[in-house]
Write a structure and sequence with these properties.
It is a single chain. 59% of the residues lie in helices and 2% in strands. By secondary structure, it is an all-alpha fold. The chain has one domain. It has a two-stranded antiparallel sheet. Helix 1 packs across helix 3 and helix 3 runs antiparallel to helix 4. The relative contact order is 0.12.
């Protein structure tokens, strides 16, 4: 799976779908049914290929603004490679999970997989489920509204995992999770250089969303600095 496919999916996938096929994967751009392995010179390594039995043909996607799309993808790729190896590795893992999830025809399966992608980015190597919803919601101005939507999505995902409960509107849930994943991904891209690690970025996202609470926290920190300075 090349990263170009991942970046283009993030850039080009629809935000929602009013009328459509519930078994049509959300990804606009998908790999073909045959795969080959190439060496450094670009030649096919061994005269063989692999066939993907789960392949489904994608509709022809027409870019509304091809030059602008390519420009945006190039900018994202250039920024992506500025992260240190560990930070970039975590983002890479979540991106691959994201694009593989939305290659799925079964939307309930796609939900399970894409929520895993969101967890991999929002709370890597953590068991605190609440952190996923609060960190994603922090990005948005209407924090409480988005936190409620994320909690609803998380509860549906949990019912699916533990009770096998499926939904007829799973694809709608998929579009919603896609929105939060994309905004969290773009948050890291836009903030590149402002945080030394993803743990530091997540500590920022753990801050209170309410301005008064942030100012109160600031006053406590200032008191602590003052106290330690005279200790």
């Amino acid at each position: 799976m090349t990263f170009c496919v991942v970046f283009f999916c993030i850039q080009c996938n629809s935000f929602s779908e009013i009328i459509g096929d519930e078994y049509e994967p959300i990804n606009k751009i998908r790999l073909g049914e045959f795969h080959t392995l190439h060496n450094a010179s670009g030649d096919i390594f061994e005269d063989t290929f692999w066939y993907d039995p789960s392949y489904s043909k994608a509709k022809v996607h027409v870019f509304g603004d091809e030059k602008n799309t390519v420009k945006n993808v190039r900018n994202i790729i250039n920024t992506f490679y500025k992260f240190d190896n560990k930070y970039r590795s975590i983002i890479s893992d979540s991106m691959l999970r994201f694009v593989r999830a939305f290659d799925e025809k079964n939307q309930n399966v796609a939900i399970l997989r894409v929520w895993g992608a969101l967890e991999a980015l929002a709370a890597p190597n953590e068991s605190n489920c609440d952190s996923v919803t609060t960190r994603c919601a922090f990005i948005f101005k209407d924090y409480e509204y988005h936190k409620q939507i994320l909690e609803h999505l998380r509860e549906y995902r949990n019912r699916n995992v533990h009770a096998g409960q499926e939904s007829e509107i799973a694809k709608t849930y998929g579009f919603q999770i896609q929105k939060y994943f994309k905004q969290l991904f773009l948050f890291h891209i836009r903030q590149q250089g402002n945080f030394k690690s993803i743990d530091e970025a997540n500590s920022f996202l753990d801050l209170p969303a309410d301005k008064e609470k942030i100012l109160h926290l600031q006053s406590i920190i200032e008191k602590s600095i003052s106290f330690r300075g005279h200790g």
